[in-house]
Design a protein that fits this description.
The chain is of the alpha/beta class. The chain is built from ten helices and twelve strands. InterPro entries: IolE/XylAMocC-like, Xyl_isomerase-like_sf, Xyl_isomerase-like_TIM-brl.
Length: about 260
């Protein structure tokens, strides 16, 4: 049986969390999520107060997203933050315009990975669909995997974006033994638009994905839905219920 702790990426409820930070976290915890990818607290809230809120809600910070298409990041500040809240992973996403650009940025990823490892954190790269464009016959993501040290640079693979890029998420994940500790899970609607869907409401086989994730050593499944056709909290609740119905959730003791 392939069961996992389930975390949430609150980008799904970005509007709500910007207006009511504590209330939004309460709603996410109420759905049943055990972990969360979260960054530094909003203005006016200390890290200690944020941690107090999260502890009350039984939400564990598992990591934080550092940046999108920007490597000018204060990694020391983020690792210090994660040490205070108990998280481990620092994630970024990038864009690339040539093979040389991929190679150059992969060198930077290795250096960042070294910084993170020295601070007892782990550096992750999060893909979108453009990493399945090819330069000189190779997928961008394959180039990144080849050019980076697997001990320093790991992935937070995203099932939706793998499928949007034209590949099978379970098949691609199978190549990532001990290299994909966090897996972003999103479904894909039927049809040419390939719009985001709640987990279990689209075309992806999450039982197969979970089986592969267990085989490669994935630690957490992280629910995210970039855009929703209904209220985002309702979408997240549907995803959580469907994961439960598939028997993929390792329920924490206090939520049995």
């Amino acid at each position: 049986m392939n069961q996992f702790p389930i975390a949430i990426q609150p980008y799904t409820v970005r509007d709500a969390i910007s207006q009511d930070y504590a209330g939004t976290l309460e709603k996410l915890a109420g759905i049943g999520f055990e972990g969360i990818e979260l960054g530094l607290p909003p203005e006016g809230m200390t890290i200690a107060k944020q941690k107090e809120l999260l502890d009350r809600l039984n939400l564990q910070v598992i990591g934080t997203h550092a940046s999108f298409d920007n490597l000018d990041v204060d990694f020391d500040r983020l690792t210090d933050y994660l040490h205070q809240v108990g998280g481990k992973y620092i994630t970024i996403s990038m864009r690339f315009d040539s093979k040389e650009d991929v190679l150059r940025k992969s060198e930077q990823f290795n250096r960042i990975g070294e910084i993170c490892r020295a601070a007892n954190t782990t550096f992750l790269y999060h893909n979108h669909d453009w990493e399945f464009a090819k330069f000189e016959g190779e997928y961008v993501l394959d180039l990144i995997l080849r050019e980076t040290d697997p001990e320093l640079v790991k992935l937070e693979l995203d099932t939706y974006w793998v499928r949007k890029g034209g590949l099978d998420p379970s098949e691609y994940l199978s190549k990532l033994k001990n290299r994909c500790p966090l897996l972003h899970i999103k479904d894909v609607e039927v049809g040419e638009e390939q719009f985001f869907a709640e987990i279990g409401e689209g075309i992806l086989d999450f039982k197969a994905i979970a089986k592969t994730a267990a085989n490669v050593g994935t630690e957490w499944l992280v629910v995210e839905q970039d855009q929703c056709r209904r209220d985002p909290f309702e979408s997240l609740a549907i995803s959580y219920r469907n994961l439960a119905s598939m028997d993929l959730i390792r329920k924490p003791a206090n939520r049995l």
